[in-house]
TrEMBL record:
The keyword Hydrolase applies. Pathway: Amino-acid degradation; L-histidine degradation into L-glutamate; N-formimidoyl-L-glutamate from L-histidine: step 3/3. 4-imidazolone-5-propanoate binds at residues 78, 141, 174, 240. The keyword Cytoplasm applies. Zn(2+) binds at residues 69, 71, 237, 311. GO terms for cellular component: cytoplasm. The gene is hutI. This is Imidazolonepropionase. InterPro entries: Amidohydro-rel, HutI, Metal-dep_hydrolase_composite, Metal_Hydrolase, MQNX/HUTI_composite_N. It comes from Halomarina halobia.
Length: 399
Protein backbone atom coordinates (compact mmCIF):
# COMPACT_ATOMS: atom_id res chain seq x y z
CA UNK A 1 0.00 0.00 0.00
CA UNK A 2 1.21 3.53 -0.82
CA UNK A 3 0.48 6.15 1.83
CA UNK A 4 0.72 9.92 1.49
CA UNK A 5 -0.10 12.57 4.08
CA UNK A 6 -0.42 16.29 3.37
CA UNK A 7 -0.65 18.10 6.71
CA UNK A 8 -0.59 21.49 8.40
CA UNK A 9 -2.29 23.26 5.48
CA UNK A 10 -3.60 26.77 6.19
CA UNK A 11 -6.75 25.71 4.38
CA UNK A 12 -8.15 22.55 2.83
CA UNK A 13 -10.79 23.40 0.21
CA UNK A 14 -12.76 20.18 0.57
CA UNK A 15 -15.63 21.04 -1.79
CA UNK A 16 -18.50 23.50 -2.24
CA UNK A 17 -19.13 25.15 1.14
CA UNK A 18 -16.61 22.95 2.97
CA UNK A 19 -13.27 24.34 4.08
CA UNK A 20 -10.99 23.34 6.95
CA UNK A 21 -8.37 25.57 8.52
CA UNK A 22 -5.12 23.89 9.67
CA UNK A 23 -6.19 20.80 7.78
CA UNK A 24 -4.75 17.58 6.43
CA UNK A 25 -5.50 14.95 3.81
CA UNK A 26 -4.45 11.30 4.04
CA UNK A 27 -4.21 9.18 0.90
CA UNK A 28 -3.93 5.43 0.39
CA UNK A 29 -3.41 3.87 -3.02
CA UNK A 30 -4.60 6.93 -4.92
CA UNK A 31 -7.77 7.58 -2.90
CA UNK A 32 -8.47 10.01 -0.08
CA UNK A 33 -9.01 8.08 3.14
CA UNK A 34 -9.21 10.96 5.60
CA UNK A 35 -9.66 14.71 5.55
CA UNK A 36 -10.05 16.97 8.58
CA UNK A 37 -8.18 19.01 11.17
CA UNK A 38 -4.47 18.28 10.95
CA UNK A 39 -4.17 17.03 14.55
CA UNK A 40 -6.95 14.46 14.09
CA UNK A 41 -5.82 13.21 10.67
CA UNK A 42 -2.13 12.87 11.65
CA UNK A 43 -3.05 11.00 14.83
CA UNK A 44 -4.74 8.30 12.69
CA UNK A 45 -2.27 8.61 9.79
CA UNK A 46 1.14 9.62 11.21
CA UNK A 47 3.32 11.37 8.60
CA UNK A 48 6.33 9.34 9.77
CA UNK A 49 4.61 6.12 8.64
CA UNK A 50 3.77 7.52 5.19
CA UNK A 51 5.75 6.89 2.01
CA UNK A 52 5.40 10.60 1.22
CA UNK A 53 4.64 13.35 3.74
CA UNK A 54 4.28 16.99 2.83
CA UNK A 55 4.29 19.80 5.34
CA UNK A 56 1.77 22.23 3.80
CA UNK A 57 2.25 25.03 6.35
CA UNK A 58 1.13 28.32 4.78
CA UNK A 59 -0.39 26.53 1.79
CA UNK A 60 -3.83 25.60 0.50
CA UNK A 61 -4.93 22.16 -0.67
CA UNK A 62 -7.45 22.22 -3.52
CA UNK A 63 -9.05 19.46 -5.54
CA UNK A 64 -7.22 19.32 -8.91
CA UNK A 65 -9.05 21.48 -11.45
CA UNK A 66 -11.49 19.66 -13.74
CA UNK A 67 -11.40 21.61 -17.01
CA UNK A 68 -14.62 20.49 -18.68
CA UNK A 69 -14.43 22.34 -22.03
CA UNK A 70 -11.35 22.65 -24.26
CA UNK A 71 -10.30 22.39 -27.89
CA UNK A 72 -6.71 21.71 -26.79
CA UNK A 73 -5.76 19.58 -29.80
CA UNK A 74 -4.89 21.77 -32.78
CA UNK A 75 -2.10 22.81 -35.10
CA UNK A 76 -1.11 26.08 -36.78
CA UNK A 77 -1.04 29.67 -35.57
CA UNK A 78 -3.94 32.15 -35.49
CA UNK A 79 -2.23 34.98 -33.62
CA UNK A 80 -2.86 37.31 -36.59
CA UNK A 81 -6.62 36.89 -35.96
CA UNK A 82 -6.06 38.33 -32.48
CA UNK A 83 -4.71 41.45 -34.17
CA UNK A 84 -7.53 41.46 -36.77
CA UNK A 85 -10.14 41.31 -33.99
CA UNK A 86 -8.50 44.32 -32.35
CA UNK A 87 -8.96 46.16 -35.65
CA UNK A 88 -12.70 45.41 -35.50
CA UNK A 89 -13.20 42.10 -37.33
CA UNK A 90 -15.69 39.84 -35.54
CA UNK A 91 -15.29 36.13 -34.79
CA UNK A 92 -18.21 35.36 -37.14
CA UNK A 93 -16.72 37.41 -39.99
CA UNK A 94 -13.37 35.67 -39.69
CA UNK A 95 -15.08 32.25 -39.76
CA UNK A 96 -17.33 33.19 -42.69
CA UNK A 97 -14.22 34.22 -44.67
CA UNK A 98 -12.64 30.76 -44.18
CA UNK A 99 -10.53 31.73 -41.16
CA UNK A 100 -11.03 30.79 -37.51
CA UNK A 101 -12.02 27.17 -37.01
CA UNK A 102 -11.76 26.48 -40.77
CA UNK A 103 -8.15 27.63 -40.81
CA UNK A 104 -7.27 25.33 -37.91
CA UNK A 105 -9.04 22.52 -39.81
CA UNK A 106 -6.65 22.99 -42.75
CA UNK A 107 -3.64 22.94 -40.39
CA UNK A 108 -4.86 19.82 -38.55
CA UNK A 109 -5.56 17.92 -41.77
CA UNK A 110 -1.97 18.64 -42.87
CA UNK A 111 -0.35 17.79 -39.51
CA UNK A 112 1.11 14.32 -38.91
CA UNK A 113 -0.14 12.09 -36.08
CA UNK A 114 3.15 12.74 -34.26
CA UNK A 115 2.78 16.50 -34.44
CA UNK A 116 -0.83 16.36 -33.22
CA UNK A 117 0.15 14.20 -30.24
CA UNK A 118 3.19 16.33 -29.39
CA UNK A 119 1.13 19.55 -29.54
CA UNK A 120 -1.48 18.16 -27.17
CA UNK A 121 1.10 16.75 -24.73
CA UNK A 122 2.77 20.16 -24.56
CA UNK A 123 -0.50 21.82 -23.63
CA UNK A 124 -1.28 19.11 -21.06
CA UNK A 125 2.09 19.80 -19.39
CA UNK A 126 1.15 23.48 -19.04
CA UNK A 127 -2.30 22.60 -17.70
CA UNK A 128 -0.90 20.15 -15.13
CA UNK A 129 1.59 22.76 -13.91
CA UNK A 130 -1.42 25.06 -13.31
CA UNK A 131 -3.23 22.42 -11.25
CA UNK A 132 -5.50 20.72 -13.79
CA UNK A 133 -5.82 16.97 -13.27
CA UNK A 134 -8.75 16.17 -15.59
CA UNK A 135 -9.41 17.84 -18.92
CA UNK A 136 -12.02 17.34 -21.60
CA UNK A 137 -10.65 17.67 -25.15
CA UNK A 138 -12.86 17.92 -28.23
CA UNK A 139 -12.18 16.82 -31.79
CA UNK A 140 -13.78 19.12 -34.38
CA UNK A 141 -10.82 20.40 -36.38
CA UNK A 142 -11.09 17.52 -38.85
CA UNK A 143 -14.65 17.85 -40.16
CA UNK A 144 -14.24 14.61 -42.11
CA UNK A 145 -14.43 11.06 -40.76
CA UNK A 146 -10.75 10.32 -41.28
CA UNK A 147 -9.37 13.41 -39.52
CA UNK A 148 -11.97 13.36 -36.72
CA UNK A 149 -10.92 9.76 -35.96
CA UNK A 150 -7.26 10.77 -36.12
CA UNK A 151 -7.92 13.53 -33.57
CA UNK A 152 -9.77 11.16 -31.23
CA UNK A 153 -6.90 8.69 -31.56
CA UNK A 154 -4.38 11.40 -30.59
CA UNK A 155 -6.59 12.31 -27.60
CA UNK A 156 -6.63 8.64 -26.48
CA UNK A 157 -2.86 8.36 -26.85
CA UNK A 158 -2.31 11.57 -24.89
CA UNK A 159 -4.55 10.20 -22.12
CA UNK A 160 -2.46 7.03 -21.96
CA UNK A 161 0.86 8.90 -22.02
CA UNK A 162 0.13 11.77 -19.60
CA UNK A 163 -0.79 11.92 -15.88
CA UNK A 164 -3.82 14.14 -16.63
CA UNK A 165 -7.04 12.23 -17.30
CA UNK A 166 -8.18 13.28 -20.77
CA UNK A 167 -11.90 12.94 -21.51
CA UNK A 168 -12.68 12.63 -25.24
CA UNK A 169 -15.53 14.48 -26.97
CA UNK A 170 -16.44 14.04 -30.63
CA UNK A 171 -17.31 17.36 -32.30
CA UNK A 172 -17.71 16.74 -36.01
CA UNK A 173 -20.43 19.43 -35.87
CA UNK A 174 -17.96 22.19 -34.93
CA UNK A 175 -18.21 24.11 -38.24
CA UNK A 176 -19.55 23.61 -41.75
CA UNK A 177 -16.61 22.61 -44.01
CA UNK A 178 -15.84 25.05 -46.82
CA UNK A 179 -18.07 24.69 -49.85
CA UNK A 180 -20.58 22.43 -48.06
CA UNK A 181 -24.23 22.89 -47.13
CA UNK A 182 -24.98 22.84 -43.37
CA UNK A 183 -27.98 20.50 -43.72
CA UNK A 184 -26.15 18.06 -45.92
CA UNK A 185 -23.02 18.12 -43.73
CA UNK A 186 -24.98 17.65 -40.46
CA UNK A 187 -26.62 14.63 -42.08
CA UNK A 188 -23.17 13.21 -42.99
CA UNK A 189 -21.97 13.75 -39.42
CA UNK A 190 -25.00 11.88 -38.07
CA UNK A 191 -24.97 9.09 -40.67
CA UNK A 192 -21.27 8.57 -41.23
CA UNK A 193 -19.03 10.17 -38.59
CA UNK A 194 -21.04 9.28 -35.46
CA UNK A 195 -21.20 5.54 -36.29
CA UNK A 196 -17.47 5.52 -37.22
CA UNK A 197 -16.58 7.22 -33.93
CA UNK A 198 -18.79 4.82 -31.97
CA UNK A 199 -17.18 1.86 -33.72
CA UNK A 200 -13.71 3.16 -32.85
CA UNK A 201 -15.05 3.36 -29.27
CA UNK A 202 -12.94 6.27 -28.04
CA UNK A 203 -15.34 9.15 -27.55
CA UNK A 204 -17.59 9.65 -24.55
CA UNK A 205 -19.44 12.86 -25.42
CA UNK A 206 -20.81 14.37 -28.64
CA UNK A 207 -20.90 18.16 -28.96
CA UNK A 208 -22.36 20.57 -31.56
CA UNK A 209 -21.87 24.31 -32.21
CA UNK A 210 -25.49 25.47 -32.24
CA UNK A 211 -25.07 29.00 -33.55
CA UNK A 212 -26.35 31.41 -36.15
CA UNK A 213 -24.39 30.76 -39.36
CA UNK A 214 -23.10 27.41 -38.06
CA UNK A 215 -25.64 24.68 -37.08
CA UNK A 216 -29.32 25.35 -36.44
CA UNK A 217 -31.19 23.81 -33.51
CA UNK A 218 -32.60 21.13 -35.82
CA UNK A 219 -29.23 20.30 -37.40
CA UNK A 220 -27.62 20.15 -33.94
CA UNK A 221 -30.44 17.93 -32.70
CA UNK A 222 -29.96 15.57 -35.65
CA UNK A 223 -26.25 15.12 -34.81
CA UNK A 224 -26.69 14.84 -31.03
CA UNK A 225 -29.61 12.41 -31.31
CA UNK A 226 -27.49 10.18 -33.56
CA UNK A 227 -24.80 10.39 -30.88
CA UNK A 228 -27.26 9.29 -28.19
CA UNK A 229 -28.30 6.33 -30.35
CA UNK A 230 -24.64 5.33 -30.46
CA UNK A 231 -23.97 5.78 -26.76
CA UNK A 232 -22.43 9.28 -26.86
CA UNK A 233 -23.66 11.72 -24.19
CA UNK A 234 -24.65 15.13 -25.62
CA UNK A 235 -23.09 18.52 -24.87
CA UNK A 236 -24.05 21.76 -26.61
CA UNK A 237 -22.24 25.01 -27.48
CA UNK A 238 -25.24 27.19 -26.73
CA UNK A 239 -26.02 30.93 -27.02
CA UNK A 240 -22.38 31.98 -27.48
CA UNK A 241 -22.63 34.68 -30.16
CA UNK A 242 -26.42 34.92 -30.46
CA UNK A 243 -29.57 33.44 -28.89
CA UNK A 244 -30.63 30.47 -30.98
CA UNK A 245 -32.10 27.86 -28.61
CA UNK A 246 -29.16 25.55 -27.89
CA UNK A 247 -29.84 25.68 -24.15
CA UNK A 248 -33.37 24.35 -24.49
CA UNK A 249 -32.07 21.74 -26.92
CA UNK A 250 -29.55 20.63 -24.26
CA UNK A 251 -32.37 20.45 -21.69
CA UNK A 252 -34.65 18.44 -23.99
CA UNK A 253 -31.87 15.93 -24.74
CA UNK A 254 -30.80 15.59 -21.09
CA UNK A 255 -27.30 16.71 -22.09
CA UNK A 256 -24.40 16.61 -19.64
CA UNK A 257 -23.91 20.34 -20.13
CA UNK A 258 -24.76 23.48 -22.07
CA UNK A 259 -21.70 25.66 -22.56
CA UNK A 260 -20.93 29.39 -23.12
CA UNK A 261 -24.45 30.83 -22.38
CA UNK A 262 -23.44 34.46 -23.01
CA UNK A 263 -26.89 35.19 -24.49
CA UNK A 264 -28.95 32.75 -22.38
CA UNK A 265 -32.21 33.97 -20.83
CA UNK A 266 -33.81 33.43 -17.42
CA UNK A 267 -36.12 30.89 -19.04
CA UNK A 268 -33.11 29.01 -20.43
CA UNK A 269 -31.59 28.95 -16.96
CA UNK A 270 -34.76 27.42 -15.50
CA UNK A 271 -34.94 24.82 -18.27
CA UNK A 272 -31.35 23.74 -17.61
CA UNK A 273 -31.87 23.54 -13.86
CA UNK A 274 -35.06 21.49 -14.24
CA UNK A 275 -33.37 19.06 -16.61
CA UNK A 276 -30.31 18.70 -14.35
CA UNK A 277 -27.96 19.93 -17.09
CA UNK A 278 -24.75 21.62 -15.88
CA UNK A 279 -24.24 25.22 -17.05
CA UNK A 280 -20.62 25.62 -18.16
CA UNK A 281 -19.25 29.18 -18.21
CA UNK A 282 -16.15 30.03 -20.25
CA UNK A 283 -15.16 33.55 -19.22
CA UNK A 284 -11.83 33.34 -21.09
CA UNK A 285 -13.73 33.40 -24.38
CA UNK A 286 -15.65 36.56 -23.47
CA UNK A 287 -12.39 38.13 -22.27
CA UNK A 288 -10.57 37.24 -25.50
CA UNK A 289 -13.42 38.40 -27.72
CA UNK A 290 -13.97 41.57 -25.72
CA UNK A 291 -17.59 40.44 -25.35
CA UNK A 292 -19.98 40.81 -22.42
CA UNK A 293 -19.59 38.00 -19.89
CA UNK A 294 -22.31 35.46 -19.19
CA UNK A 295 -24.48 36.26 -16.17
CA UNK A 296 -24.50 33.36 -13.69
CA UNK A 297 -27.20 34.91 -11.46
CA UNK A 298 -30.28 33.43 -13.20
CA UNK A 299 -28.63 30.00 -13.18
CA UNK A 300 -27.79 30.19 -9.49
CA UNK A 301 -31.31 31.47 -8.69
CA UNK A 302 -32.81 28.58 -10.66
CA UNK A 303 -30.66 26.11 -8.70
CA UNK A 304 -28.58 24.93 -11.68
CA UNK A 305 -25.18 23.32 -11.20
CA UNK A 306 -22.53 25.63 -12.61
CA UNK A 307 -19.03 24.96 -13.89
CA UNK A 308 -16.20 27.21 -15.01
CA UNK A 309 -13.81 25.93 -17.70
CA UNK A 310 -10.94 27.34 -19.78
CA UNK A 311 -12.24 26.80 -23.35
CA UNK A 312 -8.55 26.67 -24.32
CA UNK A 313 -8.43 26.89 -28.15
CA UNK A 314 -6.68 29.04 -30.78
CA UNK A 315 -9.27 31.77 -30.16
CA UNK A 316 -8.83 31.66 -26.37
CA UNK A 317 -5.20 30.93 -25.61
CA UNK A 318 -5.52 30.34 -21.88
CA UNK A 319 -4.66 27.03 -20.26
CA UNK A 320 -4.76 28.19 -16.64
CA UNK A 321 -7.90 27.34 -14.70
CA UNK A 322 -6.74 29.73 -11.99
CA UNK A 323 -7.01 32.54 -14.53
CA UNK A 324 -10.48 31.25 -15.51
CA UNK A 325 -11.49 31.68 -11.85
CA UNK A 326 -10.09 35.24 -11.87
CA UNK A 327 -12.30 36.07 -14.86
CA UNK A 328 -15.28 34.29 -13.28
CA UNK A 329 -14.91 36.58 -10.26
CA UNK A 330 -14.05 39.86 -11.95
CA UNK A 331 -16.14 39.41 -15.11
CA UNK A 332 -19.07 37.31 -13.90
CA UNK A 333 -19.29 38.39 -10.27
CA UNK A 334 -18.82 34.98 -8.65
CA UNK A 335 -17.24 35.02 -5.23
CA UNK A 336 -13.88 33.23 -4.97
CA UNK A 337 -15.27 30.15 -3.22
CA UNK A 338 -18.01 29.72 -5.83
CA UNK A 339 -15.51 30.18 -8.67
CA UNK A 340 -13.09 27.59 -7.26
CA UNK A 341 -15.96 25.15 -6.61
CA UNK A 342 -17.21 25.64 -10.19
CA UNK A 343 -13.71 24.92 -11.55
CA UNK A 344 -13.40 21.69 -9.56
CA UNK A 345 -16.67 20.04 -8.44
CA UNK A 346 -18.67 21.84 -11.18
CA UNK A 347 -16.29 20.59 -13.85
CA UNK A 348 -16.61 17.04 -12.57
CA UNK A 349 -20.39 17.30 -12.83
CA UNK A 350 -20.19 18.65 -16.40
CA UNK A 351 -18.23 15.49 -17.24
CA UNK A 352 -20.44 13.09 -15.25
CA UNK A 353 -17.52 12.19 -12.96
CA UNK A 354 -18.56 11.71 -9.34
CA UNK A 355 -15.16 10.38 -8.23
CA UNK A 356 -13.32 13.73 -8.37
CA UNK A 357 -13.62 17.48 -7.98
CA UNK A 358 -13.63 17.39 -4.16
CA UNK A 359 -11.23 16.28 -1.42
CA UNK A 360 -13.87 14.21 0.35
CA UNK A 361 -13.14 10.75 1.68
CA UNK A 362 -13.31 8.20 -1.14
CA UNK A 363 -12.51 10.69 -3.92
CA UNK A 364 -9.53 10.29 -6.23
CA UNK A 365 -6.49 11.89 -4.66
CA UNK A 366 -6.13 14.61 -7.31
CA UNK A 367 -4.73 17.55 -5.34
CA UNK A 368 -3.29 20.95 -6.22
CA UNK A 369 -1.05 22.43 -3.54
CA UNK A 370 -1.25 26.22 -3.78
CA UNK A 371 1.60 28.25 -2.28
CA UNK A 372 -0.75 30.73 -0.58
CA UNK A 373 -2.84 30.63 2.59
CA UNK A 374 -6.39 30.40 1.18
CA UNK A 375 -8.50 29.58 -1.88
CA UNK A 376 -9.05 33.34 -2.37
CA UNK A 377 -5.48 33.54 -3.73
CA UNK A 378 -6.45 31.28 -6.65
CA UNK A 379 -8.43 34.01 -8.46
CA UNK A 380 -6.58 36.83 -6.67
CA UNK A 381 -3.10 35.97 -8.01
CA UNK A 382 -3.22 36.19 -11.78
CA UNK A 383 0.21 37.27 -12.94
CA UNK A 384 2.04 34.09 -11.95
CA UNK A 385 1.07 30.51 -11.20
CA UNK A 386 0.48 29.97 -7.46
CA UNK A 387 0.23 26.16 -7.87
CA UNK A 388 3.35 24.50 -6.51
CA UNK A 389 2.79 20.74 -6.46
CA UNK A 390 0.16 18.55 -8.12
CA UNK A 391 -0.85 15.02 -7.14
CA UNK A 392 -2.73 12.80 -9.60
CA UNK A 393 -4.22 9.64 -8.10
CA UNK A 394 -1.99 10.16 -5.07
CA UNK A 395 1.28 10.40 -7.02
CA UNK A 396 3.28 13.61 -7.36
CA UNK A 397 2.77 14.47 -11.04
CA UNK A 398 4.20 17.98 -10.95
CA UNK A 399 6.51 19.94 -8.65
O1 LIG B 1 -15.82 27.14 -27.79
N1 LIG B 1 -17.33 28.27 -30.43
C1 LIG B 1 -16.84 27.29 -30.98
N2 LIG B 1 -15.73 26.66 -30.60
C2 LIG B 1 -14.69 27.24 -29.84
C3 LIG B 1 -13.79 28.09 -30.65
C4 LIG B 1 -12.93 27.27 -31.53
C5 LIG B 1 -12.01 28.06 -32.43
O2 LIG B 1 -12.22 29.27 -32.67
O3 LIG B 1 -11.06 27.42 -32.92
C6 LIG B 1 -15.23 27.87 -28.57
O4 LIG B 1 -15.02 29.06 -28.30
FE1 LIG C 1 -15.88 25.35 -27.44
Amino acid sequence: MTRTVLHGASEVFVGPGERIEDGAVAIEDGRIVAVGPSAAVTREHPPENADTALDATGKTLLPGFVDSHTHALFAGDRSDEFAAKLRGKTYGEILAAGGGILRTVRAVREASDEVLLANLLGHLDAMLAHGTTTVEVKSGYGLDAETELRMLDAIARADAAHPIDVVPTFMGAHAVPEGRDADEYAERVAEEQVPAVAEQGIAEFCDAFCEEGVFSVEQSRRVLAAGVEHGLTPKVHAEELSHLGGTKLAASLGAASADHLLHATREDARALAEAGVTAVFLPGTAFGLGAAYADPAPFLEAGATIAVASDFNPNCYARSMGFATTLACVGMGLDPAAAVAAATDGGARALNRDDRGTLREGARADVAVVDAPSHVHVPYVFDTNPVETVLKDGEVAHG
